[in-house]
């Protein structure tokens, strides 16, 4: 069923009886050409592009819980392509371009809103670093502007410009960055994949792999064995656990990242604002809630809830940047499990097991990557060659020394 204004009008006039479920609920078949493990944004996007762009058939997405229950429905919805390094910037810019056409591609309203992202500058050295990053973005076909303090003041007069420790000295602005309604991304990709014949199987946990003579033959699941020609793993925070079932140890740690939403307020925040002197970022949802977050919790965990030291840290960051936030009441908060890689950059690669492919290590930044990650993973699964924009996302880069460490922070996940 195609969604359109005419359809809404017709359904309105005929009692809304014609709407169909957005995806089917099929029983698993005994064998698929390609099985994707993980019904998050990346797994569903992979299935969509595999079927729609790469013409693959007999595909299943296996999800242990429900579609949108993982990080894709838990993030702070920010999209951007403001990276510095060659390994990253072309990939994230490819993703931003896909976001720009996504709603037409999926025929689904994902509320893609390019309201701009401002990374605040608090010192002269930081201005130099952001100027360099902005130039790298422009060289890769992205947009970037360096704003003066006065320009920032015009955009967001409520910020604490006179803070003695962290005065605001300008910002790196990407106007094409912004926000997207996160769960609608999961639903839109799921609906499109389903309409191209992909079986989306919920409540189906993968519990093991069948590997014979170095080749994957299928997966053991809570709903029985499912045979597969190829298996793509896209389980985000559970990457280490799932790949351990195939005998692999990854350069990834799992940590909790929390998000916070205030009560609904009148429009105040024009786009996304990130604090350059602490870990704090904030935007405002269309319902009026201030949506904000900060650092990961300081210990490894698979629990989808966080702890109070980070709540305090985020509140301190918010108060230092925009004291008006102290007047807003917190409505909700939650956590998601982050697959933090050792250089802060992801993996989209084959493994040493034939037919087994891995997508993960998305750290804080995997939501904005969703379309490009799905596209590049589909390319890899369909053609056995890496997509042009994802060639650097190799599993062996720590052996070869080709890390993609945006901040030069080293192997410490919370610093990326
Ligand atoms: C609080 C928070 C804020 C964030 N903010 C941003 C942001 O503003 N911008 C940004 O770009 N990124 C952000 N991120 C990161 C982003 O959300 C993730 O990197 C991205 O969503 C991960 O990919 P995914 O959508 O495929 O993950 P998920 O939605 O987590 O999908 C993985 C799926 O795999 C399933 N699974 C796991 N194990 C198994 C198994 N054994 N069998 C079957 N299924 C299994 C899980 O149930 C899950 O549904 C944020 C994350 C969090 C938690």
UniProtKB/TrEMBL annotation:
Q: Which residues cross the membrane?
A: none
* InterPro entries to which the protein is assigned, alphabetical: FAD-dep_OxRdtase, FAD/NAD-bd_sf, SoxB
Q: Where is this protein primarily located?
A: cytoplasm
Q: Which UniProt keywords apply?
A: Cytoplasm, Nucleotide-binding, Oxidoreductase
Domain FAD dependent oxidoreductase, chain residue ranges per copy: 33-380
Q: What GO CC terms are in its UniProt record?
A: cytoplasm
Q: An example of a Gene Ontology BP annotation on this entry?
A: tetrahydrofolate metabolic process
Concerning NCBIfam families, the annotation shows: soxB
Protein's recorded name: Sarcosine oxidase subunit beta
Provenance organism: Actibacterium pelagium
Query: What is the phylogenetic placement of the source species in the record?
Result: Bacteria, Pseudomonadati, Pseudomonadota, Alphaproteobacteria, Rhodobacterales
């Amino acid at each position: 069923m195609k969604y359109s204004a005419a359809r809404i009008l017709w359904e309105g006039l005929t009692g809304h009886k014609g709407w169909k479920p957005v995806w089917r609920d099929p029983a698993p078949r005994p064998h698929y050409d390609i099985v994707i493990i993980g019904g998050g944004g990346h797994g569903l996007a992979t299935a969509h592009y595999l079927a729609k762009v790469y013409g693959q058939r007999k595909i299943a997405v296996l999800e242990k819980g429900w579609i949108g229950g993982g990080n894709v429905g838990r993030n702070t919805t920010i999209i951007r392509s403001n990276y510095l390094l060659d390994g990253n910037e072309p990939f994230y810019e490819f993703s931003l371009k896909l976001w720009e056409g996504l709603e037409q591609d999926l025929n689904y309203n994902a509320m893609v809103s390019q309201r701009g992202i401002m990374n605040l500058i608090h010192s002269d050295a930081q201005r130099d670093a952001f100027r360099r990053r902005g130039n790298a973005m422009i060289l890769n076909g992205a947009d970037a502007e360096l704003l003066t303090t006065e320009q920032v003041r015009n955009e967001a007069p409520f910020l604490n410009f006179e803070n003695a420790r962290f005065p605001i000295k300008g910002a790196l602005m990407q106007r094409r960055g912004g926000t997207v309604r996160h769960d609608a991304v999961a639903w839109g990709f799921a609906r499109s994949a389903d309409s191209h014949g992909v079986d989306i199987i919920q409540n189906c946990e993968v519990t093991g792999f069948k590997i014979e003579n170095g080749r994957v033959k299928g997966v053991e699941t809570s709903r029985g064995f499912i045979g597969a020609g190829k298996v793509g793993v896209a389980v985000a925070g559970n990457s280490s656990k799932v790949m351990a079932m195939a005998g692999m140890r990854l350069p990834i740690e799992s940590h909790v990242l929390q998000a916070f939403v205030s009560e609904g307020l009148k429009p105040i925040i024009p786009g996304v604002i990130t604090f350059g002197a602490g870990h704090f970022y904030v935007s405002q949802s269309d319902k009026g809630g201030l949506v904000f977050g900060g650092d990961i919790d300081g210990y490894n965990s698979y629990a989808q809830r966080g702890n109070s030291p980070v709540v305090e840290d985020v509140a301190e960051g918010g108060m230092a940047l925009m004291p008006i936030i102290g007047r807003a009441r917190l409505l909700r908060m939650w956590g998601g499990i982050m697959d933090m890689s050792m250089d802060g950059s992801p993996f989209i690669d084959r493994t040493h097991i034939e037919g087994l492919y891995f997508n993960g290590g998305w750290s804080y930044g995997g939501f904005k990557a969703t379309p490009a990650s799905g596209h590049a993973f589909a390319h890899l699964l369909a053609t056995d060659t890496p997509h042009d924009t994802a060639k650097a996302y190799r599993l062996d880069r720590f052996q070869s020394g080709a890390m993609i460490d945006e901040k030069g922070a080293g192997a410490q996940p919370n610093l990326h």
